[in-house]
Amino acid sequence: MKRKDFLHLTGICSLGLLTLPHIALGAVQDRFTKAQLIGKGNPDITGNSYTQKMHKQTKVAFLEMKSAAAKDNISIEVVSAYRSFERQKEIFEGKYKRFTRQGLSATQALSKIIEYSTIPGTSRHHWGTDIDIIQANTGKRPSSVLQEKHFYGVGPFCEMKVWLTQNANSFGFYEVYTKDVQRKGFSHEPWHFSYRPVSRPMLRAYKKLDIKSILQQEKIKGSEHFSDSFIAKYIKEHILDINPELL
Q1: Is the CATH number 3.20.20.140 carried by domain 34-246?
Q2: What string of DSSP letters covers 45-82?
Q3: Whether 210 contacts 217, CB under 8 Å
Q4: d(CA 1, CA 3)
Q5: Which DSSP helix (H) or strand (E) runs through 35?
Q6: How far apart are CA 243 and CA 210, in angstroms?
Q7: Are 214 and 227 in contact, with CB atoms under 8 Å apart?
Q8: Tens-digit pLDDT profile for residues 208-245
Q9: The whole model's pTM is what?
Q10: Are 160 and 166 in contact (CB under 8 A)?
Q11: Residues 25, 201: contact at Cβ < 8 Å?
């Protein structure tokens, strides 16, 4: 696949990283604010809907990948991209209320939520670099699209998954929560990809934040059960136990 146009679009950034790596990387890391990193405002986000909002560099790379896939008759559709702190809080608290109403204890509800959903302020979707994607041109769509079984075997999105395995990395996209049996944290998500040129420096900047203090300041339902051990384990397993290519 030809990468000429994509490289031209991102050439200035790439040139800086190649010629002055130590200076360029430091500049990238230093420019992120706490608000950007926890989903409370990011001037680099472009787009006008939850399926179109992405970091501007991520959007360029995604459109290039989408175009290349289309040439192989694979139609990639984004079902979720940038997600604000408030939107993640709605998702998290909605599940917390539902699970506790079903009879789970607070700690049981938290454990169940973080199988797939992040605590507000800790989501990679806050950065605009991560996307949840499915294959659009497959006929009748399952009622619940983000299920592992749909991406393997005879699943409706298996052709796209094979294509991504072969090609996504060349466009800068990497699967975040891999199928590695040794990996802990979030369950395998074959639909979740991250644009490494931006998400890796954002993660490095994010690791410098006092996550425990930030979460304690936010009024999140169930947060009174965020013990020191819970937060330490969550950071180790859910934030950092990901595809090593993204660290």
Answers
A1: no
A2: EE-SSTTT-EEHHHHHHHHHHHHHHHHTT--EEEEE--
A3: no
A4: 6
A5: helix 34-37
A6: 23
A7: no
A8: 999 989 988 988 999 999 999 999 999 999 999 999 99
A9: 0.87
A10: no
A11: yes
